[in-house]
Design brief:
Protein name: Phosphoribosylpyrophosphate synthetase
Strand content: 25-35%
Low-confidence stretches: none
Order of helices and strands: HEEEEEEH
Organism: Pontibacter mangrovi
Protein backbone atom coordinates (compact mmCIF):
# COMPACT_ATOMS: atom_id res chain seq x y z
CA UNK A 1 0.00 0.00 0.00
CA UNK A 2 1.38 3.35 -1.02
CA UNK A 3 1.36 6.28 1.40
CA UNK A 4 -0.11 9.35 -0.23
CA UNK A 5 0.05 12.88 1.06
CA UNK A 6 -2.77 15.04 -0.20
CA UNK A 7 -1.62 18.60 -0.74
CA UNK A 8 -3.90 21.52 -0.13
CA UNK A 9 -4.60 23.55 -3.25
CA UNK A 10 -2.51 26.45 -1.88
CA UNK A 11 0.50 24.22 -1.19
CA UNK A 12 0.21 22.64 -4.64
CA UNK A 13 -0.04 26.02 -6.40
CA UNK A 14 2.98 27.29 -4.44
CA UNK A 15 4.97 24.20 -5.40
CA UNK A 16 4.04 24.65 -9.07
CA UNK A 17 4.96 28.34 -8.95
CA UNK A 18 8.31 27.61 -7.32
CA UNK A 19 9.10 25.13 -10.10
CA UNK A 20 8.40 27.97 -12.58
CA UNK A 21 10.89 30.28 -10.82
CA UNK A 22 8.52 32.20 -8.52
CA UNK A 23 10.61 31.49 -5.43
CA UNK A 24 10.56 34.74 -3.45
CA UNK A 25 8.09 35.18 -0.59
CA UNK A 26 6.98 38.80 -0.41
CA UNK A 27 5.27 40.87 2.26
CA UNK A 28 4.05 44.47 2.47
CA UNK A 29 5.82 46.37 5.23
CA UNK A 30 4.47 49.07 7.56
CA UNK A 31 5.56 51.77 5.10
CA UNK A 32 3.32 50.22 2.43
CA UNK A 33 6.17 48.87 0.29
CA UNK A 34 6.42 45.36 -1.10
CA UNK A 35 9.56 43.71 0.24
CA UNK A 36 11.32 40.41 0.57
CA UNK A 37 10.71 38.61 3.85
CA UNK A 38 14.14 39.67 5.13
CA UNK A 39 13.36 43.31 4.19
CA UNK A 40 16.57 43.67 2.16
CA UNK A 41 14.76 44.57 -1.08
CA UNK A 42 11.79 46.94 -1.34
CA UNK A 43 9.53 47.80 -4.25
CA UNK A 44 6.88 50.43 -4.89
CA UNK A 45 3.69 49.64 -6.83
CA UNK A 46 5.26 51.02 -10.01
CA UNK A 47 8.03 48.39 -9.73
CA UNK A 48 5.69 45.40 -9.55
CA UNK A 49 3.26 43.67 -11.86
CA UNK A 50 0.68 41.01 -11.12
CA UNK A 51 1.21 37.95 -13.28
CA UNK A 52 -1.72 36.00 -11.86
CA UNK A 53 -3.65 35.40 -8.67
CA UNK A 54 -5.47 32.49 -7.04
CA UNK A 55 -8.32 32.48 -4.55
CA UNK A 56 -8.76 29.71 -2.02
CA UNK A 57 -11.71 28.91 0.25
CA UNK A 58 -11.62 26.76 3.36
CA UNK A 59 -13.50 23.48 3.08
CA UNK A 60 -15.49 23.87 6.26
CA UNK A 61 -15.67 27.63 6.71
CA UNK A 62 -16.34 30.13 3.90
CA UNK A 63 -14.70 32.82 6.08
CA UNK A 64 -11.43 30.91 5.78
CA UNK A 65 -10.49 32.40 2.41
CA UNK A 66 -7.16 33.57 1.06
CA UNK A 67 -5.68 35.03 -2.09
CA UNK A 68 -2.23 34.37 -3.53
CA UNK A 69 -0.72 36.97 -5.85
CA UNK A 70 1.94 35.90 -8.36
CA UNK A 71 4.29 38.86 -8.82
CA UNK A 72 7.29 40.00 -10.83
CA UNK A 73 9.41 43.05 -10.06
CA UNK A 74 11.22 45.30 -12.52
CA UNK A 75 14.49 43.92 -11.15
CA UNK A 76 13.44 40.42 -12.27
CA UNK A 77 12.57 39.03 -8.83
CA UNK A 78 9.66 36.60 -9.09
CA UNK A 79 7.54 35.38 -6.21
CA UNK A 80 4.25 35.46 -4.38
CA UNK A 81 2.33 37.39 -1.75
CA UNK A 82 -0.59 35.97 0.19
CA UNK A 83 -3.41 37.67 2.06
CA UNK A 84 -6.67 36.77 3.71
CA UNK A 85 -9.60 37.36 1.40
CA UNK A 86 -12.71 39.33 2.27
CA UNK A 87 -13.45 40.38 5.83
CA UNK A 88 -10.04 39.44 7.21
CA UNK A 89 -7.87 40.92 4.47
CA UNK A 90 -4.93 43.11 5.44
CA UNK A 91 -5.72 46.68 4.37
CA UNK A 92 -2.01 47.46 3.87
CA UNK A 93 -1.68 44.64 1.34
CA UNK A 94 -5.00 45.50 -0.28
CA UNK A 95 -4.03 49.18 -0.69
CA UNK A 96 -0.67 48.26 -2.20
CA UNK A 97 -2.12 45.72 -4.62
CA UNK A 98 -4.75 48.15 -5.92
CA UNK A 99 -1.88 50.36 -7.13
CA UNK A 100 -0.01 47.57 -8.94
CA UNK A 101 -0.39 47.12 -12.68
CA UNK A 102 -2.12 43.82 -13.37
CA UNK A 103 -2.51 41.86 -16.56
CA UNK A 104 -6.22 42.26 -17.11
CA UNK A 105 -7.64 40.70 -13.94
CA UNK A 106 -10.01 42.98 -12.05
CA UNK A 107 -8.74 43.08 -8.48
CA UNK A 108 -11.53 45.40 -7.34
CA UNK A 109 -13.98 42.51 -7.75
CA UNK A 110 -12.47 40.87 -4.66
CA UNK A 111 -13.81 43.48 -2.26
Amino acid sequence: MEDKTELTPLVKVLADLRSEGYTTDFKVNEAGMLCTMDGNQQFGPEDVRIVNFYRFEGESNPDDMSILYVLETKSGLKGSLSDAYGTYSDSTIEDFMKQVRDLGKDLDKRI
